[in-house]
Request: fold
Amino acid sequence: MPIPNGIQIPNALVEDVRQRRAVLFAGAGMSFPSLGILASHIRDAIGSEIQRDYAEYDFGLRTLEDVCDEYVALNDRITLVNRLAAAIPQGAIPTPSHVEAVKAFRFIITTNWDLLFEAAYRQIGQGYNVLSSNEDAPNFTYDQHNLLKIHGSVDRPLTLIATSEDYEGYAYTHGLLLDRVYELLNNNTALFVGYGLRDHHIRQLLTRIRLTRGVWARKAYAVGYFDRVRTRLLDRRNIEAIQVLGGTDEIGSGLEEILPELINRAGIH
Reply:
């Protein structure tokens, strides 16, 4: 399916993908067309459980991270991560974007917990290596396809990153995995798809790259729905916005057509 009118894919990005000089960084917006759930849906499910015991609890005013913190305070972490894992459909069908991505990108970084990329690898018969915890980092190799699930994986609930403590301690608990992410982002063109670029540990890596490489830092690209202010901020951070037509939590935004069209233009089949 062609991309909607008004969405522009830079030729420089097409060439980097063609030459295998690009790394895909996938956020929740890429999984939404298949899963149909967002962080707010998971927040509501967990928050509803708290509300059963605390009728005045208003989870609608809280983030998923807030609700996870409070759930752990009332229960325990292992109950939380198993509850989170149960909220993510594990038999979902990968989107065309997932299938095209695993063909074109040897290295994919994602904050998503779901198993859509794994299903896409299996669909095309491509071998792959999953790194979803710090202990997995030594398994990274340039000789095969690598999927770096930096916030954990639903099939390994104990790896899930969900609470404030998880995020605040990430650099200490996942230092080896972050080193691999830094290496990939530093040496390749980063393409962010459906990702808000708000995680502190990722922003910190990107700032480190800009400061150390200066004018030699590679331009990155972000596919999403950004207003003019956010677009200017991204530009200051050397990230070119590729605008879609609506929020990445909306079917028909154009996001789901971007990767297939990009990879087609790059001549990868």
